[in-house]
Amino acid sequence: MTEDFDVRLVEDVKTYTPDPQYRKNAWMGDYQKAYDEFLADPDAFWEKMAKELDWISPWDKVKEWNYPYAKWFTGAKLNITANCLDRHVNDTRRNKVALIWRGEGGRERIFTYQKLLSQVARFANALRKIGVKKGDTVCIYMPLVPEQLIAMLACARIGAVHSVVFGGFGAAALNMRITDADAKVVITADITIRRGKAIQLKAIVDEAIINASTVEHVVVLRRREPHVDLHENELDFYEMMDGMSDVCPPEVMDAEDPFFILYTSGSTGKPKGIVHTCGGYMVGTYYTSKYIFDIKDNDTFWCTADPGWITGHSYIVYGPLAVGATVFISELTPDYPDAGSYWNLIEEQKITIFYTAPTAIRMFMKMGESWPDKYDLSSLRIIGSVGEPLNPEAFEWYYRVIGKSRTPILDTWWQTETGMHMITTMIGEPMRPGFAGKPIPGVEADVVDKDGNSVKPGTGGLLVIKSPWPAMLRTVYKDDERYRKYWETISGVYTVGDLAVKGKDGYIMILGRSDDIIIVAGHNIGTAEVESALVSHHAVAEAAVIGKPDVMKGNSIKAFVILRVGNNPSDRLKQDLMHHVRTTLGPIAIPHEIDFVDKLPKTRSGKIMRRVLKAQEMGIDPGDVSTLEE
Ligand code: WTA
Predict the structure, then answer these.
(1) What is the pLDDT of residue 3?
(2) Cβ atoms < 10 Å from Cβ of 610
(3) 60, 289, 517, 581: which sits with the fewest CB atoms below 10 Å from its CB?
(4) CA of 364 to the centre of ligand 1 (A)
(5) What pLDDT, on the 0 to 100 scale, is given for residue 518?
(6) pLDDT at 368 exceeding the cut of 80
């Protein structure tokens, strides 16, 4: 059953074994011991983790598994911000630095835990004052500035469900996310700053809310001096906080109350609103921040993602703050002001744990070793990767040039849906380039064939998770059927949608998506989303989109377009279509290539066979084409 899978297993890869002191000093200690302990009694394992946190009242049961629905820490009451903020302020970390932000031109802002708590409380009170209540949805569409985190934490404080939308999305994508989630408030900024240039953010919100009837207020962080004028119904972020108390009692949340919605691409044109809940997500992100990243009190932790993605939710905001870490964030890009930007920040801030994406690592490789070599990177203790497979060449380079053949690499496999790390090579374990690693303690994963049978080592198949975990998604917002599909595609297990190969000793190599999602520079893009954006252009009759392997971005987007009668192919039209996708979906979804065609390969039932287009494009065998229309 596995012949369909493109197995690229290289078993003779080199193994790197970190210095034994890593394992000795790690919070987790010995991987196998921890894993065995988990398997022996999963609920006891998670209960022990949960007990490291503060709860308003405890749970009746650790887990209720009613396939395919799970509830965790049933009956327990909590507020995650009490764990991310108050717990540290009441303890010894009141004056510890929680957050350091670096902007362009050397600008720096620092928040201690006390200061962050006060700001969050004041903004939370301000949101309450304009009528935001527990269960209301708030859309956050902001640049990577401290106020973005403050807005998220303030929502969490009062039990409002946030839906953070990455600031790079275009107006149509934002509109869909605002309306699907029935957002009552949109929090944004006038501008975002990219490579020395101001990009108008609020202009996109203005367009996105035209038909969004649920939106009552738009809150604007005004960064520009002098301040831009506000429209009617718009509120200034800081003016709202004027006169607000810096005490805001945390809303009492049930462990299973919805915590946030985060949209991710699916195989239809409509993104999925992944719903996470309060208790399990808190335990999962706390556990992995502490035991997988091994964050210690004197670490400075830098995750280069944006809070608009799950990586930012879990490993900029909630996980690291729950463990009381010092979190570093920056609005700078890796190539601005020059290609040494990130290395300069690591030296300047003495970053100890650095977490980035393979696409960035490959870009660093291209820019050359001379850039990192100019800086002192000796503060680094652990370096991580997420978002797509870390290919062996990129692993070797990252390990040698950035890690100085010393620091372990954590190649973490997980998803928006999983909420937390699931597979990696734990600190101190032997690392095998190309392999993400093994399931972490707390997670049961396997590689199976289409019928769900576990494949033999050395064989490829579908990656699945075999039992529920606390930070798992609970549903897809307003579309529970799409949730059930994860658990029903192969009966009894959670099908993640990735192809993988089982190596020896339980190591897993992730190959990439098995569905219609293309991962471009670490961002998930649905082929259907790009197709419907193209078809919304007046000149386009039909479109098909495929992912093409790309050395830098992992994949690039290629579109095949049939024009409506009366339109002629031209370079100008191509540019116009690219621009159209940019303004509707955003720059991350722009096709890199567009071909104008007269026909698309379809099944007799009319479905576009993207597989055939891809095979043609790459000069490979398209496989079974018996369903292809004449
Ligand atoms: C891919 C990002 C290989 C995978 C946290 C997954 C990876 C999708 C890795 C989820 C990794 C993520 N190695 N592939 N270490 N990490 N992926 O929802 O295809 O944005 O299904 O979550 O990214 O992307 P998402």
Answers:
(1) 35
(2) 18
(3) 60
(4) 20
(5) 94
(6) yes
Q: How far apart are CA 49 and CA 26, in angstroms?
A: 16
The stretch 539-543 carries a mean pLDDT of 93
Residue closest by Cα to atom 13 of ligand 1: 389
CA of 153 to the centre of ligand 1 (A): 25
> Could you tell me where in the chain the CATH 3.40.50.12780 domains are found?
81-251
Residue 437: CB within 6 Å of ligand 1?
no
pLDDT in tens, 70-115: 999 999 999 999 999 999 999 999 999 999 999 999 999 999 999 9
Ligand 1 pocket check for 355: Cβ under 6 Å: no
Distance CA 402, CA 377 (A): 7
What integer pLDDT is reported at residue 6 of this predicted model? Answer: 44
- Which residue's alpha carbon is at the smallest distance from atom 25 of ligand 1? 415
pLDDT digits (tens, 9 = 90+) for 551-567: 999 999 999 999 999 99
Q: What is the pLDDT of residue 587?
A: 93
Rounded to the nearest 10 degrees, the angle between the axes of helix 113-129 and helix 146-158 is 60
Whether the pLDDT of residue 309 is over 60: the answer is yes
Q: Is the CB of 270 under 6 A from ligand 1?
A: no
Atom 11 of ligand 1 has which residue's CA nearest to it?
413
Give the distance (Å) from ligand 1 centre to CA of residue 580: 27
> Is the predicted pLDDT of residue 5 greater than 70, yes or no?
no
Pick the CATH number of 522-618 from 3.30.300.30, 3.30.499.10, 3.40.50.1220, 1.50.10.20: 3.30.300.30
Question: Is any atom of ligand 1 closer than 6 Å to the C-beta of 540?
Answer: no
pLDDT tens for residues 440-473? 999 999 999 999 999 999 899 999 999 999 999 9
Is the pLDDT assigned to residue 2 strictly greater than 70? no
Q: How far apart are the first and last CA of the chain?
A: 28
Nearest-CA residue for atom 12 of ligand 1: 387
Q: How far apart are CA 274 and CA 458, in angstroms?
A: 33
The atom number, within ligand 1, closest to the CA of 523 reads: 20
What's the confidence (pLDDT) of residue 11?
55
Domain 81-251 has CATH 3.30.2350.10: no
- 41, 252 in Cβ contact below 8 A? no
Q: By percentage, how much of the chain surpasses pLDDT 90?
A: 89
Residue span(s) of the chain under CATH 3.30.300.30 come to 522-618
Q: What is the pLDDT of residue 10?
A: 54
Q: Which atom of ligand 1 is nearest to the CA of 311?
A: 5
C-beta 559 within 6 A of ligand 1: no
Residue with tokens 């029935």: 182
d(CA 562, CA 473): 38
Closest CA to 435 of 459, 411, 419: 411
